[in-house]
Write a structure and sequence with these properties.
alpha+beta, Nucleotidyltransferase, domain 5
Length: 668
């Protein structure tokens, strides 16, 4: 500690005898640690007091207050110093030798001309001087603050970004009149207020939604804390919205009953009781049980997870497992060895093979295995030539590969051919922005046809197909789940022709009729209640005995009434209204007669454009358009969560984790 306390922190701190200091504002004891950095950080973070301006700030100050120069009409450059050097006179400088006469005439000017030149140069105006001198309007300050907080949330920046000296210097350079909030205000006041506003907006949207669907999945942080994220899907003016509801930290073992309690609490908070038509989760037994106990309309297994489970059956075939154990060490060597990369590159150029790197698979992602084998087949000539090169041929990893036969290579090609459709569907389901439930059964039918046995299949191809087909036949076999997916397929304008029987359309007709009757009865009850509440008219008092009541005289007819009296048309019959069920059947017939959409077209947009022409059927279609085929929407949160709860923020509070993920995904 220096003898003479020159640092400004000691204006706010009191030194103690044990290498610590006490804050004069909050009486908090702070460790000195050989310098005043901890003390300055405390003052800046908790009290907004800056005692150690960063050199970047001084540089910016010098740039802002740098001398400016102007050129007079006579060609003389006058240099104006900063505001603190107003006593110094302007210094003329000669622009060129040809301007010597102009300089001479300028030097003989009177004092009045010199003063006018000085005045013209001292009133230099630029955006920085205007911002420095002018007072920033309050609305502009709030707008910038919101933008700063949005930058922190959407870019997943830490709260202390606002205390970074270079960030503060940059903001000061952009607008010197704006003062950044401190870290405490950002974390405790501003971002929570932003979260509260976004949460209220989402609750208002869900209040007006007639039906919603959910997806849910769990993930673990770096410190092995388990979280469950729920997303909601609903139609807002025929626009399909996807929002994050909550990210809940699991405090108890994730059994079906405990997950049910967490789901029920979330539904109660957002007012979604009775509105959830379906919930899509992975195929874990605990999640499926929880959705059934939580009172969700329909529990659906994630179709992307189903595809992954079926694909794992491919990798369990013994012949393929042997091939993978042969090529993985070779790929690992060429990816890690510098010499191996050089040799492989030489062989690629010599054999005119595309100069692509070899890929190594991840065991939890089956499609990476498919891509690894596909790339290995492409690079097979170059790889074999590289393994025979004198510089690396004796490597232990190459012994098995050097014994690979043409039959083994044909097996790799067979695997790629068999698994190609499964890979395409996995990619489509993962990248699809709107994977509605109507896609499931048509996709399953395509896969079952592809993996059915063929007389021309080799024994290896037959073994690959048999394992996948057996697994696919076990999926989506529950009566309620199967019927729900059939109805979703029928109401998906892209796949409606896949429904061959009439049972699906009869069920839809019955559901539309029942829903219409239910909505009508609810509306009648609401109208009756409204009439009862608003009926303030008093009933006429009964007549007393002997009381004479005045009899109103008949109203006198107008001249027009007298002229046309007796010319009214008598109505002898009325055509009865068309029964509701017949109207529904007519709408279904018109819908089935319409051309189906291409698979890449938007079925939600189709129903938006035809909601007027199909008013009854479009109401029930809303329930199925929100149902999700996969829980990819929840799984996409994993990468965001990994960026939020990263190594530097592993101890982030669960409330802050929920708030940051909510804002990151829901803010526009």
């Amino acid at each position: 500690m220096p003898k003479h306390k020159k640092s400004k922190v000691w204006m706010h701190m009191k030194q103690l005898s044990d290498g610590k200091a006490m804050c004069k504002h909050c009486n908090m004891v702070v460790v000195i640690s050989g310098g005043t950095s901890n003390l300055a950080r405390h003052l800046s973070r908790h009290h907004g007091i800056e005692t150690q301006p960063h050199p970047a700030g001084k540089i910016m100050e010098k740039l802002l207050m740098a001398p400016t120069s102007t050129t007079t009409s006579a060609g003389v450059t006058l240099t104006t110093q900063s505001d603190t050097d107003n006593d110094a006179p302007p210094l003329p400088s000669i622009g060129s030798s040809s301007q010597s006469s102009a300089v001479a005439s300028t030097s003989t000017m009177g004092s009045s001309s010199q003063s006018s030149a000085t005045a013209s140069t001292s009133t230099c105006v630029n955006p920085f001087t205007l911002a420095h001198r002018g007072k920033m309007p309050e609305f502009k300050k709030q707008k910038i603050t919101v933008s700063v907080c949005k930058y922190i949330v959407k870019s997943l920046r830490p709260y202390h970004t606002v205390e970074n000296p270079y960030f503060r210097a940059m903001v000061h350079e952009l607008n010197p009149a704006y003062q950044l909030p401190n870290r405490h205000d950002v974390s405790e006041r501003l971002i929570p207020a932003m979260y509260k506003a976004a949460l209220g907006s989402l609750k208002e949207d869900l209040k007006n939604a007639d039906c919603v669907s959910l997806t849910g999945d769990g993930w673990s942080s770096r410190v092995a804390d388990h979280y469950m994220t729920l997303t909601v899907h609903y139609l807002k003016d025929w626009d399909l919205e996807c929002k994050v509801l909550q990210t809940l930290k699991a405090e108890v073992q994730q059994t079906g009953e405990n997950i049910t309690v967490e789901i029920d609490q979330c539904l109660a908070e957002f007012g979604l009781e009775g509105k959830v038509t379906s919930m899509t989760t992975d195929n874990a037994r605990a999640m499926l049980n929880a959705t059934g106990l939580a009172g969700v309309g329909m529990s659906l297994g994630c179709f992307a997870h189903t595809l992954n489970l079926a694909a794992q059956k491919l990798l369990e075939v013994k012949a393929l497992t042997t091939l993978l154990s042969t090529i993985r060490p070779v790929i690992t060597y060429f990816r890690k060895s510098y010499l191996g990369k050089l040799v492989l590159k030489e062989k690629q150029e010599g054999l005119n093979v595309p100069a692509n790197s070899l890929l190594l698979d991840c065991k939890t992602r089956w499609n990476s295995t498919y891509l690894m084998i596909e790339r290995f087949i492409q690079q097979y000539p170059a790889v074999m030539a590289a393994t025979m090169d004198e510089r690396i041929r004796k490597k232990e990893q190459f012994k098995k590969l050097q014994r690979v036969s043409d039959n083994d290579f044909n097996k790799m090609e067979t695997f790629v051919q068999v698994a190609a459709l499964l890979y395409k569907m996995t990619t489509a389901m993962s990248t699809e922005q709107r994977p509605t439930a109507g896609m499931v059964l048509p996709t399953m039918d395509k896969l079952k046809d592809h993996f059915s046995a063929s007389p021309n299949d080799s024994p290896f191809a037959a073994s690959l197909k048999a394992g996948v087909l057996k697994d696919l036949n076990k999926r989506y076999q529950g009566d309620g789940e199967r019927e729900f997916l059939e109805e979703a397929t029928a109401l998906d304008a892209r796949f409606k022709t896949f429904c061959k029987g009439e049972d699906v359309w009869d069920r839809l007709c019955h559901k539309v009729t029942a829903k219409h009757d239910k909505d009508l009865s609810i509306k009648k009850e609401a109208n009756l209640a409204k009439m009862d509440d608003g009926n303030t008219e008093t009933e006429p008092e009964p007549e007393k005995e002997g009381q004479v009541t005045a009899v109103k005289a008949p109203k006198k007819k107008s001249p027009l009434d007298e002229i046309f009296h007796g010319d009214e048309v008598e109505i002898t019959s009325v055509t009865p209204p068309v029964p509701l069920r017949v109207r529904v059947q007519n709408e279904i017939g018109r819908y089935r007669a319409m051309n189906k959409l291409m698979p890449s077209q938007d079925t939600v947009l189709f129903w938006k454009e035809n909601s007027t022409g199909l008013p009854l059927l479009s109401v029930i279609a809303r329930q199925y358009l929100t149902a999700q085929a996969s829980s990819v929407a929840s799984e996409r949160i994993f990468s965001t969560a990994g960026d939020v709860v990263k190594a530097e923020r592993a101890c982030l509070e669960p409330g802050n984790v929920n708030m940051l993920i909510f804002l990151k995904k829901n803010l526009p």
